[in-house]
Design a protein that fits this description.
five-stranded antiparallel sheet; Beta-Lactamase; 22 helices; alpha+beta; 713 residues
Length: 713
């Protein structure tokens, strides 16, 4: 692990810088309703500048160390730590709402760093900045985030705690682990000592911590908040997905172009060959297990013990199910003579039912009680596949049937990376499933006449003639020409006896291409991050504009005191419902009511108490109405309710229920109040003004009759 990371330090520095750019993007797009309103802009500035300084380290690592470039890199790093300290100090100032000595402390620390740099040069400048700015800045930032938990939403607090812990860890990694120097403090823990203890460069750990902080900010920011900040999370997920493609893709490209020696490529090829072999073996084991399960299935065993049309139909259903479940080409059952009696493709023109496969080795092994895995070209389908057979035994252990499953070969082409070609080789060297499909069913090396004749007679791979691709059988690790390139041959055996996976890896010496591929990945990453920030900003603007429009619409339709519909919205809705009721000849009822003796309430208890009474009455009325009814404040203490598709008697019952609920409600300071109600139903061809006037007249009849009652008109 240690040697690997040391050989990849240029890419490590690239990832280090990229991780901080992602952290900066997360800071710029953090949702304030989920996290406290901390000065995230300062933390974003720290992340962006620090990431840029690490990319300058990448350039310094790849080329000869240039003092001017080193000075720029050191200044950028110090500036980033100053931004981190500023984030902490500004945050504490914002939370405490009072001035402090923090900014004086920051100036003092910066002066000490400058003095150290003047005394010991750029290296002391770097080390002093880490001890005096990076370490305290990171720890103070962690304390700030931890303290901000108090003012955050409950769901965001665990994420803030995690963010604080990660920030404290970064402070230790960045401020306490320093480059080797003759400064006495650096001897406590420098880069070589950290690498010796952990086996991992400290830059890797810093990059992981920065990435984790970005993820925590993104996920924690999704804690449900108000509707004013419901920013879609799919932009962050999209950026993460792009990064997950770019980072390994860039690394793969870089590795493919940077291998310079034969030994390095051989080791990489062996690892890849083993991985591909595991893919094939895993798929083989999967199909073998499926064949075992099928052989002991009750429907299959019933067919073996009691063959009939019913048991055959049940067995066919099982075959259909296992083909779907395991994504097979075909599943079928052979009797002891090798004849197919059931098949998942029985209803297709290519049905193999009644076909005989007694000549196949997989049948010959299974009928003798042994499982068999067999790779061959389908006699009927002419498609390469993997066959797995298993015997079906009766109660006495006698093999009665043979179940056979056929699946497509695992796609080595899709799994193989950075190879010139990848082959699946038979025991005699016949090529199957090559990346270059033109090589399929060729022999890799020349076959003898007897071998060729045996293959043709077995019908395992078609009629031949299996022309060779190279002149002689290669040895693992041998360098040879393959497809007009110098390649190294790698061979890894499979669990299927005699079969193997073979790779041809190209030999390239391309140090300059390594930097080129990193640069391409860097540019694409910057474009992705910039695109994400722009999309998020656009979405924030659109969401907030939409929320503002909804608020304005709500204000235009809602009474500000009672939060009921206002008179204008009621009249608009009333006109629409009246036209609908007239067109469809439906019932439509109105209830108009107001508070009895409301002027005396205002005179005795004050207008504020009267307003509270209106609010409470509006809440009671809203709960008493049906979901599709509309209740509105008509004016002053007067309210009106629109009841679509409701006759007079139903409206009267609703009004009576509401009257009783209001009379039973105890209002603070005032006690109990009563209301008078007027209820009317739409007459044929009656206009809106007439209907409202009749409701208003009925209301006044209720008042004249003694109040606290319902009058219908």
């Amino acid at each position: 692990m240690r040697d690997f990371f040391l050989s990849q330090m240029d890419y490590v520095f690239f990832l280090y810088g990229l991780a901080f750019l992602l952290l900066g993007a997360a800071c710029l797009t953090v949702r304030s309703v989920a996290f406290p309103r901390l000065p995230w802009g300062w933390l974003a500035s720290f992340a962006f500048v620090h990431g840029a300084s690490e990319w300058l380290d990448l350039i310094l690592l790849s080329f000869e160390r240039n003092q001017n470039l080193l000075a720029i890199k050191t200044i950028a790093m110090i500036a980033s730590f100053a931004f981190l300290l500023q984030f902490a100090l500004s945050g504490f100032h914002q939370l405490n709402k009072r001035s402090s000595l923090g900014f004086t402390l920051a100036a003092l620390l910066l002066s000490l760093v400058a003095s150290a740099g003047a005394w010991g040069g750029l290296l002391w400048f770097d080390v002093a900045a880490r001890y005096l700015l990076g370490l305290p800045g990171g720890l103070l930032a962690a304390m700030l985030i931890y303290r901000a938990r108090r003012s955050s939403r409950a769901g965001a607090r665990p994420w803030l705690l995690a963010l604080a812990a990660m920030m404290a860890l970064y402070a230790l990694l960045a401020g306490a682990v320093v480059p080797p120097s003759d400064l006495f403090l650096s001897q406590l823990m420098d880069y070589p000592r950290f690498l010796e203890i952990t086996g991992i460069p400290v830059q890797v750990c810093r990059a992981l911590v920065a990435s984790a902080m970005a993820v925590v900010l993104w996920i924690g920011s999704e804690v449900p908040g108000t509707k004013t900040e419901q920013i879609p999370f799919h932009y962050a997920l999209g950026l993460v997905a792009v990064m997950l493609i770019l980072i390994p893709g860039g690394w793969a490209l870089t590795e493919g172009l940077s291998r310079q020696t034969h030994d390095d490529i051989a080791k990489r090829g062996n690892r890849q060959a083993r991985a591909l072999a595991r893919i094939v073996d895993k798929d083989t084991e999967r199909i073998n297990q499926a064949a075992h399960f099928l052989a002991v299935n009750s429907a299959i065993r019933n067919l073996a013990v009691n063959p009939s049309e019913a048991t055959l139909q049940s067995a066919n259903q099982v075959l259909d199910q296992i083909v779907i479940a395991f994504q097979l080409q075909i599943a079928y059952i052979l009797d002891r003579s090798g004849t197919a009696i059931a098949s998942s493709n029985r209803n297709s023109p290519e049905s193999i039912v009644t076909a005989n496969y007694a000549f196949r080795p997989y049948f010959q092994s299974a009928v003798n009680g042994h499982d068999r895995t067999y790779l061959a070209l389908g006699v009927t389908s002419n498609i390469l596949g993997q066959y797995s057979s298993a015997p079906v035994q009766d109660a006495h252990g006698k093999v009665v049937l043979v179940v056979v499953l056929k699946s497509v070969l695992p796609s080595l082409a899709s799994a193989a990376l950075e190879v010139n070609d990848c082959l699946l080789l038979s025991p005699v060297g016949l090529v199957l499933d090559a990346c270059d499909q033109h090589a399929d069913l060729h022999s890799l090396w020349p076959l003898g006449e007897q071998q060729t004749r045996t293959l043709i007679e077995s019908r395992q791979f078609g009629p031949g003639p299996f022309p060779p691709l190279i002149e002689a059988k290669p040895e693992p690790g041998q360098v040879l020409r393959w497809r007009n390139q110098n390649t190294i041959y790698i061979d890894e055996p499979l669990s299927i006896e005699g079969w193997s996976v073979a790779l041809f890896l190209p030999l390239k010496e391309a140090r300059i291409y390594r930097l080129f591929s990193i640069g391409v990945t860097l540019v694409m990453s910057l474009l992705a991050i910039g695109f994400y920030i722009l999309l998020n900003a656009q979405e924030v603007y659109a969401v907030r504009l939409g929320v503002l429009m909804l608020q304005l619409r709500d204000q235009a339709h809602t009474d500000p005191l009672t939060r009921l519909a206002n008179r204008g919205w009621f009249q608009e809705s009333f006109s629409r419902e009246l036209k609908k009721a007239t067109r469809l000849n439906q019932n439509l009822a109105l209830i108009m009511f107001d508070i009895d003796h409301f002027k005396k309430i205002n005179d005795r208890f004050g207008h504020q108490a009267g307003d509270r009474a209106l609010v409470k009455l509006a809440e009671t009325a809203r709960l008493a109405m049906r979901d599709y009814d509309l209740i509105s404040r008509w004016g002053g203490e007067e309210f009106v309710a629109l009841l679509p598709d409701t006759d007079l008697e139903t409206a009267r019952l609703i009004a009576e229920r509401l009257r009783e609920q209001i009379a039973a409600t105890d209002l603070p300071e005032i006690g109990q109040v009563t209301c008078s109600f007027g209820v009317v139903e739409r007459r044929n061809n009656e206009n809106g003004d007439s209907l409202i006037n009749r409701a208003d007249a009925a209301l006044y009849q209720a008042k004249d009759a003694g109040r606290n009652r319902v009058i219908c008109a």
